[in-house]
Design brief:
about 25% strand; single chain; five-stranded antiparallel beta sheet; four-stranded antiparallel beta sheet; about 290 residues; alpha+beta
Length: about 290
């Protein structure tokens, strides 16, 4: 026996079903709209809502966040501002309140030069070149820079007695950055030290494993704030050439130290690290290291 449903009742049921479906769709729409707005911010120039992680406004095409701001200080095809870095110290090169055996990957500045041993205060940095190339619309697999310039910046404090001669090498082993600071190290800071490249992996040679050639040279002025340029073209071109031959990116970074072959009675200077970029804005000059590829 079949129940005959009047047409008007069937229509009401159908409309109720459609209304329920539309109600669910509206709820989902508003939920996603809320989540999108919660993960957005207004552009300071045109007030268009953009994603929190955006560094360039898609509407007015202006740089709004690090690493796109502040504007670059010089012309280059690719400007690399991000990566990882760490300061390491020899066993006899403890600065006041510092523990030489612990990681120092977290401070916004650190020493570079000599304290007790000639090259006991070193700086390790690996720039994220592939990411910077991607942002610049450059394919590193089909491009090689004609010139590569490393720029490091010194704090105004400190006097090295004499200019500090530097030498730069390409690292032969990857390192772990860690989060430790001089005098504020804990077991969970992990990261590289004078004796270890990572928490689990020791250096083959204490102080860092690196290729002796090619290399680059620079000089830190004796005193005062300064911006120091170092031509690292030969080192960076070697990385690109290897990428073209092998088809994979293998770059362990750079190690900076005092040049032991240059006689000088210098001590050390304090330089800014990549952590000094935190909170960079349009009104704040860049202090952290940069790599310019042309």
């Amino acid at each position: 026996m079949h129940t005959i449903v009047p047409p008007e009742v069937a229509e009401r049921r159908r409309l109720r079903g459609v209304s329920a479906a539309l109600y669910i769709i509206l709820i989902i729409y508003f939920i996603f709209s809320y989540l999108s707005s919660a993960d957005a911010k207004p552009c300071r120039f045109c007030n268009v809502s953009i994603a929190n992680q955006a560094t360039v406004c898609p509407s007015c095409l202006r740089a709004i966040a690090w690493p796109s701001t502040p504007p670059r200080s010089r012309r280059a095809v690719v400007v690399v501002r991000t990566g990882r870095d760490a300061f390491i110290r020899g066993p006899n090169d403890a600065l006041p309140s510092a523990r030489t055996a612990a990681n120092a990957g977290g401070p916004s500045s650190g020493p570079l030069g000599s304290w007790y041993s000639a090259t006991g205060l070193r700086y390790l940095v690996r720039f994220d070149i592939p990411e910077a190339c991607r942002e610049a619309g450059i394919d590193p697999a089909s491009w090689t820079p004609n010139r590569a310039t490393l720029v490091v910046r010194l704090t105004p404090e400190g006097d090295a007695r004499e200019d500090v001669p530097l030498v730069v090498y390409a690292l032969a082993r990857p390192f772990e950055e860690g989060t430790g600071s001089p005098g504020l190290n804990f077991r969970n800071d992990r990261g590289c030290t004078w004796f270890r490249a990572t928490t689990e992996l020791p250096w083959a040679t204490a102080g860092g494993d690196y290729f002796s050639q090619p290399r680059a040279w620079g000089t830190l002025p004796r005193t005062g704030a300064a911006e120091v340029e170092i031509d690292v073209t030969d080192i960076i071109r070697t990385v690109f050439d290897a990428h073209h031959r092998m088809g994979k990116w293998e770059d362990f970074g750079l190690i900076l130290m005092r040049d032991p072959e240059t006689p000088a009675r210098c001590t050390y200077r304090i330089m800014y690290s990549l952590e000094a970029a935190s909170g960079a804005s349009l009104s704040q000059p860049v202090r952290s290291p940069e790599l310019f590829l042309e």
